[in-house]
Every structure is written in C-alpha cells, then in structure tokens.
Specification:
Number of domains: 2
Structural class: alpha+beta
CATH topology of the largest domain: Nucleoside Triphosphate Pyrophosphohydrolase
Radius of gyration: 19 Å
Number of strands: 11
Helix content: 10-25%
CATH superfamily of the largest domain: Nucleoside Triphosphate Pyrophosphohydrolase
Number of helices: 3
Order of helices and strands: EEEEEEEHEEEEHH
Length: 182
C-alpha cells in the first residue's frame, strides 16, 4: 500500500496561548475519503544544545517540568525568538541564558520533528564546544534552573539510570553519537 498526503479541508483556531496555538485541522483520508478532524499545536521552532566545556564536562540544567510534575535533568534549550533568523543564534542565546556559559564553537547536529502527530514545529539540535562560564543565568520568570556539570564519560550512566529521560534530549544525544560514530 502506498501512503499519500491527506487533503487539507480547513483549519479552525481553537485557542491562542503565549507560546503556542491549538487548532483543529480537517483532513480527507485518501484511502477512505472520510473527513476527519485532528488537533494540532502550532509553536515556534525550538533549539537544544549539547554543551561541552574545555575540560570535557557536559553542561546540563535541572528544572521542574509541569507535564511530568518532576524535576528533569536536561540539556539547555528553548524557543527560537521571532527576530532570530538563524537557529544557531537561538542556541547560543539559550545556552547563555540558561547556564551562564558561552561556546567557542556551535554546530548543527540535526533537525527533528518533536512530535509529528501533534506539533507543527521543528527542533534543531546543536553541539557547543569550548564552553566556559562567563556570567550569571538570565532566567525567564517561569524558570527555576540549576546548572549541573558532569564528565562526558558519565552520560551513559545518567541515561541508563533514567536520570536523563527527556525524549528530545535523548534524540539530540543520538544525533551527536551518530555524527561521531565510525
């Protein structure tokens, strides 16, 4: 069976929030011809950053996540601001704001769909190397962040123990590992 695109029949904005909109999108199934409604979340594109210091430590952030109702250990990241035309600019800004670190070099690891069933945006994952602390954090009012540095060699243990379980963080790590695999 060949899979085909679904015809868009129309969209209805249901609610607009600060960082995302929810809409109902009506589509026609190419297989059955049925008119089916789907709920989609429109949000700006995101970035996340695997940051490595000059002494081979990962720069991580610990913060409370309201969806899981738990503190989560993650890599820095966030929304690309409307004025930022280059995702690498957003990655450098998020790294600086959330950790107080700046990188000597930032490179794109890959771009992914955070959840293509619901979200319409993309996430760009970056590798930042030569990172060093240059100042204090610049947290948003809705953020409480603790910066944690751990040796790169301890990453697998953090993942195995479930201390890092954020899917988009794990995806960025997969991009990083695929880049360095031989």
């Amino acid at each position: 069976m060949t899979i085909h695109d679904w015809e868009r029949l129309g969209d209805e904005l249901l609610v607009r929030y600060k960082v995302f909109d929810v809409r109902k999108s009506r589509r026609r199934s190419p297989r059955t011809g049925a008119d089916i409604g789907f709920f989609l979340i429109d949000t700006p594109n995101w970035v996340n950053v695997i940051a490595i210091t000059t002494d081979q430590k990962l720069v991580l952030v610990r913060q409370f996540r309201h969806g899981s109702e738990q503190v989560s250990l993650e890599i820095p990241g966030g929304l690309i601001d409307p004025h930022e035309t280059d995702p690498a600019m957003a990655a450098a800004r998020e790294l600086r704001e959330e950790t107080g670190f700046e990188a000597q070099h930032i490179e794109l690891l890959g771009v992914m769909n955070p959840n293509p069933a619901l979200f319409t945006n993309r996430l760009s994952a970056f590798l930042a190397t030569g990172c060093r602390r240059v100042g204090d954090l610049a947290m948003d009012p809705g953020e409480d962040i603790e910066v944690v540095t751990v040796p790169v060699a301890e990453l697998d243990g953090l993942i195995r123990r479930g201390e890092i379980d954020h899917a988009l963080v794990l995806a960025a790590i997969a991009f990083w590992r695929a880049r360095t695999a031989t």
